[in-house]
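Quick check before the chapter quiz. The format below is the same one you will see on the exam, so make sure you can read both the input and the output lines.
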Amino acid sequence: MDENYPVKNEEEDNWDLIVSPKSSLLELNLREVWNYRDLILLFTKRDIISQYKQTILGPLWLIIQPILSTVFFTVIFGWFAKFKTGEIPYAIYTLSGLTIWNFFSTSLSKSSSVFLSNAGIFGKVYFPRLTVPISIVLSNAISFIIQFIVLLCLLFIYTYFKDFNWQPNIKLFFLLPFILIIFAFYGMGLGLIASALTTKYRDLSFLISFMLQFILYFSSVVFPLDGFAGKFQLLFNLNPLTHIVKLFRAIMISTEMPDPKWIIYSITIGIITLLLGILIFNKIEKSFMDTI
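Here is the expected output.
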């Protein structure tokens, strides 16, 4: 027998990981994502640390930022524009909206640059790409918890020092994680769509922050929309984010509950947005390295 003849080494076929193309664009492969849970936690820790690295105040910005935004919007819309919020102090009305809005807007803006920000890693080693946007949502969930505590502190301050009659809707408190999940659907879904599109059209990355500011004012976050003329109400209602913000505020400070049919509408649009985001993300994932 020729000694140079290539002999198949069966040990070489015992691969730990076999990477195969996805059979469907909507394929999530959650089991594989779960197997990489340590990597998700590592990315989550990286996101939190990198966000406040080389800052003097560090994570304190998680508290300072919503407080400064609340003061700004209270002065502009509460004092000068004279928007009415009923028995609810304007600062509480604004911070309750910003607390849940910041979770959505930060998830969207960070997810929108997943491909461009991680091109160096994606091009060198295989791992489920969805681990990155999932870690972004998780890191923002931690930020949400901190800002939620700030909101609770403000509510206690107004209750004991300003005689505010705070009556949270305790029976619906179990819906808070559900609200967070729906906003995660929107933030991650829209972020994945934007991330896929920005690999070809970089202009979109400049428009995202502008669009978020625009949507903020039409989602009942910093001022109520109920006082506007009736013909505009349908346009406001078509914005699905409005009803989730209203539901969060109804639980925290017992404002008027949104119509259940609009809640169902918001949930449906949220699920569609996430599925569309995953579909486009999976499609672009195969070829984005050739584009960027």
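If your answer matched, good. Residues 1-7 have pLDDT under 50 and may be disordered.
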